[in-house]
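Q: What does the assembly look like in three dimensions?
Context provided by user:
Components: two
Sequences:
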Amino acid sequence: MSSAEGTLAPAVLSANRISKSFGEIPVLFSIDFDIKPGEVHAIIGENGAGKSTLIKILSGIEQPTSGSITYDGETVTLPPDGKAEAMGIVLIHQELNLAEHLTASESIFLGREIKRFGFLDLGAMRSKAAELMDTLHVRVDPDDRINTLSVADKQMVEIAKAISRDARVLIMDEPTAVLSVAETQTLFEQIRRLTARGVAVIFISHKLDEIMELADRVTVLRDGQLIATVGTEALTPDSIAQMMVGRELSNLYPPKHEPDVDAPVVLGVRNLTAKGVRDISFDLKRGEILGFAGLIGSGRTAVAEAIVGLTHRTGGDITLDGKPVNFTQVAQSVDAGLAYMTKDRKGKGLLLNMGLRPNLTLLTLKKHIKGGFLDGASEDRALERAVRRFDIRARDASVAVGRLSGGNQQKLMLGKTMESEPEIVIMDEPTRGIDVGTKQQIYHIIAALAAEGKSIILISSEMQEVIGLSHRVVVMREGRLTGVLEGAEITEAEIMRYAAGIKQSGNDERISA
Amino acid sequence: MSVSAPDIPAKTKRGFRLDLKTVGPLLALALLVLLGISLNENFLSYNNLTNVLARSSFIGIIAIGATFVITAGGLDLSVGSMAAVIAGVMIMVMNWLIPTMGIGWGVVLAGMATGILLGGVAGTFNGMMITRGRIEAFIVTLGTMGIFRSLVTFLANGGTLSLNFQVADVYRPVYYDGLLGVPWPIIVFALVAIAGEITMRYTAFGRYCAAIGSNEQVARYSSINVDNVRLLTYILQGVLVGVAVLLYVPRLGSASSTTGVLWELEAIAGVIIGGTTLKGGYGRIWGTVVGVVILGLIGNILNLQNLISPYLNGAFQGVIIILAVMLQRGRKNA
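A: Here is the predicted structure of the complete assembly.
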């Protein structure tokens, strides 16, 4: 909990009975919201609840249809296109808005360059930037190019930029979605430093534990309605989740069906070495959900990409049903019944400008060719099946998938992957950035697939998810496999010990367990 | 993050814009035709229309190849120079074959085969440099544009390469004659357009082109052999340049360093006016056909009236290109 002394102060920014409609469709209904100096106010809700619209209105990017915004006690109309920044309201987008080729210092002063006699005063900007980085305790050199920085450091540059603009209200859209646990903690320290200086912070997150840790107050939105604004001390993660979905989330994770003890090994990996990973060995049994836990950057995705042939494997052996395989192209692994579902659904998973159908069938287009030509009717049937099976919701099939909610995009990607009828599926972060309700659906789909006899590798940075679904858990750290856990060992604390390098097992004696 | 809510207005607006985008080029074409009719009663005459269409067919056939290249996120600036060098070599080969083969269709067919083969080779070279050499398409084809242009100048020794007079007589009908009164270039253009439209819409290759142009990473992760599909678009482009040239050579019977100058820009302009996205991901062949015809009609209409100087042809074409892209901007999404 950060500084709570601000709670008695008057609000610095407030929204009063804000409603917003796009065309004839209302998306926000008479929302009251306020933020006080030095406070952290979290906004939470399922996808489509109106969170993004609300922060866009609070930062002036969208104008409310009715209702008013009060800033410093005065009713104002916030200028659009981020010009509210000059007034001290800064929005940090989820997809950070930094020009990749500029340096940190150039980024911080972009659009407000310090000049001397009409020319850029590079020295002054550099030293000012270094000063800002120091106050934030960030180890970023002002001359570092943005594209050489980690996501966490980029975020710090954004925050430095915000501070350099004397931000009084800092709005962050899911800042921790792409951060590791350690990076999240650093971010939270920064936020606490800012609030101690009286900056008001609004942030959106899907991670309930983070909200419990950081926020002073929580506003829950559901379907564009304000459900409640409550002090965090009066809440539990369960009660927040219930307010979000409006129903009990008793069985978020389906019951585990242990695979047969003598289920055959379908995928065997021995001493796999590729870019970023070394000496990885593990077995996957039929009907098993094998969790892959570890910090972001621990090499789990690299393992998956090396197995399916997306990246080059420099060493090690892979067997499929006991037979050695060597995939150099994704098409080969797909044909062999092994599919990989990327974690980057917007960058690598879906064609955002296209409709549902071409996206669904892209991986398996060959199945829909008749006499050399595409069979649209066959594609339509596939889409119909997938929509039913995975509960994909879209206004119509021609809507560009970039316009779907994250949850529906994820379900479409799952449908696309399953179109290849794989026996083994590697799912990389299958629930990243989607709401609780959809998560639950996906968990049940994963469990059902395993019960059908499919084998699943589940890579996830949400420890609860790995624990709730997996029969066994592989833990990775810095490109190496540090442990394989099963049964009662699968606990958050135990995984963390392996992920952080406190514990390490010689993996050879455990792989066949 | 909730993306669904703000999408709703885009949807309603999109319905309107999408219509404009689909019918936009057709609307422009209709306006031009009306304008043409009002300016000169001869506009709709058989002679005038076949003349315009026949002249447009070279650019049209090349532009259909360019539609695939651009849809797959590529670009080929070399097509104009490529056309010139193919025309030059075709003429040299035919002249060289006369002593052995004599005057007749044998020589002409050999010349045609040479043209198509050369186009395929040139396209393969571009495509290999881009996909295997990992050099940007703009750079590669800017380079080959210079190379091809210089080659034809060299082969013609700075002057003009002329086809043997008698062979030219045999070859002439390929441009000037036709079937049921429709000149051959128009027939070939139509056939290429129909085949192109079918390929783009109803084959895996067409779908893969759009997928690669939309997001190369997604295509790669979807088990598409990105390099091969890309390479194929450049080969197809080269072959179609060859096809265009074998219809062009009988028109003048000669080639020089000025043959095919700026054809690459006209072809790209036709593609863009037709509604294909320059950065790739979406392409339509029928649009390209309409785009090329629009460009041809502008020149024709300027020639049929005497209020505005026909020398302003390029300026009008330029305005149309900019307008077309402005009207299509509403499509930008995601």
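Follow-up: The first helix of chain B runs from residue 4 to 39.
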